[in-house]
């Protein structure tokens, strides 16, 4: 089970959370990783934690201003990237371009999508994984795996009809070990979560609770 903690732009200490993620990853069979802001990737990766970017742009080296180049986040220490997060939506052609840019830089890819139909379209682009995250549940503390189990099962079906090699994750409102177990029972191979850890008073305790039943 992959547990990827997206720090978004929450005002947490990214290095302190990264150290907690690293320590909990060492204590569990689950794969626990963190996605800080691009500006924090190098400091976060220096802790030894598995580090992901939150986004890369569909560009190559050259005349681009204010963009995130896949090679730069890889050099900074990221091993993978989210693409098309609900809070960083892209057009289909740009999702494709970002997946290709990430592959060029050797980054693992997770393409996020709102619903099973978009999951099928995203899987057709050949990322390593897709993640279904109903936007209305993001940040609510109401877990997708309990509030909308059908969306997770339908996303698993949609991806497998297109490409069985593409893993399916889910996210939105996940904050406890029970939520992670429910996600796995529905066929998800991992979860994305943010506020349950990034806004927790004690991120390490929140992470320990997430992996406890695994
Ligand atoms: O957007 C998310 C992860 O990418 C989910 O956010 P929450 O865990 O805060 O609902």
Automatic annotation (TrEMBL):
<protein>
    <recommendedName>
        <fullName>Triosephosphate isomerase</fullName>
        <ecNumber>5.3.1.1</ecNumber>
    </recommendedName>
</protein>
<dbReference type="InterPro" id="IPR035990">
    <property type="entry name" value="TIM_sf"/>
</dbReference>
<keyword id="KW-0324">Glycolysis</keyword>
<feature type="binding site">
    <location>
        <position position="173"/>
    </location>
    <ligand>
        <name>substrate</name>
    </ligand>
</feature>
<comment type="pathway">
    <text>Carbohydrate degradation; glycolysis; D-glyceraldehyde 3-phosphate from glycerone phosphate: step 1/1.</text>
</comment>
<dbReference type="GO" id="GO:0004807">
    <property type="term" value="F:triose-phosphate isomerase activity"/>
</dbReference>
<feature type="active site" description="Proton acceptor">
    <location>
        <position position="133"/>
    </location>
</feature>
<dbReference type="InterPro" id="IPR022891">
    <property type="entry name" value="Triosephosphate_isomerase_arc"/>
</dbReference>
<dbReference type="GO" id="GO:0006096">
    <property type="term" value="P:glycolytic process"/>
</dbReference>
<dbReference type="InterPro" id="IPR000652">
    <property type="entry name" value="Triosephosphate_isomerase"/>
</dbReference>
<comment type="pathway">
    <text>Carbohydrate biosynthesis; gluconeogenesis.</text>
</comment>
<feature type="binding site">
    <location>
        <begin position="194"/>
        <end position="195"/>
    </location>
    <ligand>
        <name>substrate</name>
    </ligand>
</feature>
<dbReference type="InterPro" id="IPR020861">
    <property type="entry name" value="Triosephosphate_isomerase_AS"/>
</dbReference>
<dbReference type="Pfam" id="PF00121">
    <property type="entry name" value="TIM"/>
</dbReference>
<keyword id="KW-0312">Gluconeogenesis</keyword>
<comment type="subunit">
    <text>Homotetramer; dimer of dimers.</text>
</comment>
<comment type="function">
    <text>Involved in the gluconeogenesis. Catalyzes stereospecifically the conversion of dihydroxyacetone phosphate (DHAP) to D-glyceraldehyde-3-phosphate (G3P).</text>
</comment>
<keyword id="KW-0413">Isomerase</keyword>
<feature type="binding site">
    <location>
        <position position="138"/>
    </location>
    <ligand>
        <name>substrate</name>
    </ligand>
</feature>
<keyword id="KW-0963">Cytoplasm</keyword>
<dbReference type="InterPro" id="IPR013785">
    <property type="entry name" value="Aldolase_TIM"/>
</dbReference>
<comment type="similarity">
    <text>Belongs to the triosephosphate isomerase family.</text>
</comment>
<dbReference type="GO" id="GO:0006094">
    <property type="term" value="P:gluconeogenesis"/>
</dbReference>
<feature type="active site" description="Electrophile">
    <location>
        <position position="85"/>
    </location>
</feature>
<dbReference type="GO" id="GO:0005737">
    <property type="term" value="C:cytoplasm"/>
</dbReference>
<feature type="binding site">
    <location>
        <begin position="6"/>
        <end position="8"/>
    </location>
    <ligand>
        <name>substrate</name>
    </ligand>
</feature>
């Amino acid at each position: 089970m992959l547990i990827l903690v997206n720090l978004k732009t929450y005002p947490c200490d990214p290095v302190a959370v990264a150290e907690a993620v690293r320590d909990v990853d060492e204590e569990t069979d689950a794969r626990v990783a963190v996605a800080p802001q691009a500006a924090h990737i190098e400091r976060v990766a220096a802790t030894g934690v598995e580090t992901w970017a939150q986004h890369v742009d569909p560009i190559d080296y050259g005349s681009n201003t204010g963009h995130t180049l896949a090679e730069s986040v890889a050099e900074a220490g990221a091993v993978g990237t989210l693409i098309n997060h609900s809070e960083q939506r892209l057009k289909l052609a740009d999702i494709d371009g970002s997946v290709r840019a990430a592959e060029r830089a050797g980054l693992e890819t997770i393409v996020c999508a709102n619903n099973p139909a978009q999951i099928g379209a995203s899987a057709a682009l050949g990322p390593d994984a897709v993640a279904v995250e109903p936007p209305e549940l993001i940040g609510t503390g109401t877990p997708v795996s309990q509030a909308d189990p059908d969306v997770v099962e339908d996303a698993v079906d949609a991806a497998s009809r297109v490409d069985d090699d593409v893993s399916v994750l889910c996210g939105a409102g996940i904050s406890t070990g029970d939520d992670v177990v429910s996600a796995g029972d529905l066929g998800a191979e991992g979860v994305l979560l943010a506020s349950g850890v990034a806004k927790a008073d004690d991120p390490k305790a929140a992470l320990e609770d997430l992996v406890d039943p695994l």
